[in-house]
Specification:
The protein has three helices and seven strands. By secondary structure, it is an alpha+beta fold. The chain has one domain: Rossmann fold (3-Layer(aba) Sandwich), CATH 3.40.50. It has a five-stranded mixed sheet. Strands 5-6 form a two-stranded antiparallel ribbon. The protein starts with a helix and ends with a helix. The N terminus is likely disordered.
Length: 147
């Protein structure tokens, strides 16, 4: 059963990596210059009341051959955009600086990156009034639905 669940999850990731969601396609970011690879940003509906915000950044090396890394910042309560824009993403917003610069150590040099903001109500993720209560179990169910 576990192998079947893993296979389904990997198939979902492969579909996400190869899909071209035109509405979610990121054309540019302010003050960043041209994007080094294709990016997508949007929402993954995980229930009738919850949608998790994601950013998907393609690998700079081998889009179809490199792995997909799913990044969830710790917390709960910390936006995964912190990791995307100050730790391992293609651009860095350094403290005390007013410029956005390329990250020479970006993980997408060798991997496709999927940043998901979880649980609902964190970052740009959305949920209803009853979605403020969550557990590790409910977050894992939401993440599985998102993937």
């Amino acid at each position: 059963m576990r192998a079947k669940v893993i296979a389904i999850a990997l198939a979902g990731l492969a579909a996400l990596a190869s899909a071209d969601y035109k509405a979610d396609r990121v054309q540019a970011l302010p003050m960043c210059g041209p994007l080094p690879t294709n990016w997508w940003s949007g929402y993954l509906k995980v229930s009738d009341t919850k949608s998790l915000h994601y950013i998907y950044v393609e690998s700079m090396s081998n889009v179809t051959g490199d792995p997909v890394v799913i990044w969830l910042n710790g917390g709960p309560g910390c936006s995964s955009l912190l990791g995307a824009f100050s730790e391992n993403g293609p651009f860095i917003f350094d403290d005390g600086e007013s410029v956005i610069k390329p990250n020479p150590y970006a993980w997408n040099q060798r991997a496709n990156l999927l940043y998901i903001e979880s649980p609902a109500h964190v970052g740009f993720s959305m949920g209803g009034p009853n979605d403020w209560n969550f557990t590790d179990w409910t977050q894992s169910i939401d993440l599985f639905a998102a993937v």
